[in-house]
Amino acid sequence: MSHELHCSTHDGIGAEEEESSKHQHLNGFCGNESKLESLLTACSRSDHGGGVSFASGRFAIYSTAVKPSSSLRTWDNDHRLHDAARAVAAGLPVYTAWHEIPTDSGEARLISLPRGGGGGGQGGTQPAVQSKNESILSCRPWFLLNAARSRSHCIVGRGDRVQTLLTTLQRPWCVLELCCIDDTDVLAAVLEFAVQAQRVVPGCLYDSAVYLLRWEVEKRRQEYLRLRRRSALRNNTRELYTVCDAVFPPSAASFNGFWIRMICVCAVEMGVPFSTVVQLLNGMKKNSVEAFSGGSYLDERHRGSSEVGHLTAVYARALGKVADLVA
User: Fold this and answer.
1) How far is CA 270 from the centre of its chain?
2) I want to staple 141 with a disulfide (CB 3.0 to 4.6 A). Which of 16, 33, 63, 259 is the partner?
3) Rounded distance, CA 27 to CA 112, Å?
4) Exposed, middle or buried by CB within 10 Å (0-12, 13-18, 19+), for 224?
5) Measuring CA to CA, which residue among 327, 145, 319 is closest to residue 247?
């Protein structure tokens, strides 16, 4: 999933290693990788913080997270889980090896997408290390913004289709990349797989994915105007608490944890899909944050400021409501 979890060449690395190998910007390269190198490793090596795509423009969502323990492989013979994986792959390519990529698709070469500016094209390479004094607001989640700019997507992993999906859905930043996919029916299929994974795999590895995907799908299927009128009348503080509980712990493993948390909380506060907040950050929406939020969270300090400034105001207001709830 391009973005934060890019892995080293080792199979089982943890979330922090996974992201650091991705976001510490390895001395990787794009295109012309040896076909002896695994597809997943090639994605990791080609990712300099802006994600990667195939030469066709298809954005690659990948994770190098540790898969659920092999001693707990309760999913091997679970027909509902495998059926759900097939349904996902019917609308969203899932690649685990080079030979699975159609030879006539133009996808045999990987391209490193840029951090900053125009995304979506044949990105250049940006500085690998950010200055410690650089404002956090200028360190945008470029991998996520590039995912939103892309019109086609795929998932890259290792092993088989089920294992790849189980690995990818452990990471909320990968789930947010999935939320950038335009086709809501595809997202509904991913949600069904996440629900089955939640049922089959012990623990709470997939609680965050189920929450995020369910919110995205449900909010897309609602009318914005009707939703905003209703949200203006309801108290959403407990929903804000729920999204914080679902996203804050796993996002701590991400170099973009601030942005992941802000995007999720702002979406819940404004009552819109997560993809809408990402598009607002990307300048891809005709309406502004002020329009989506009704302007009720913006004091004179924020009026006329950037969309990022508006979102941080919404974020601060939402966190204040949660603090009041638990105080």
Assistant:
1) 19
2) 259
3) 12
4) middle
5) 319
Res 198: pLDDT: 94
Q: What is the pLDDT of residues 161-208, one digit of tens each?
A: 999 999 999 999 999 999 999 999 999 999 999 999 999 998 899 999
- Structure-token match 């924020």, residue found: 302
297 contact partners, CB below 8 Å, separation of at least 6 = 269, 313, 314, 317
Identity of the residue numbered 112: S
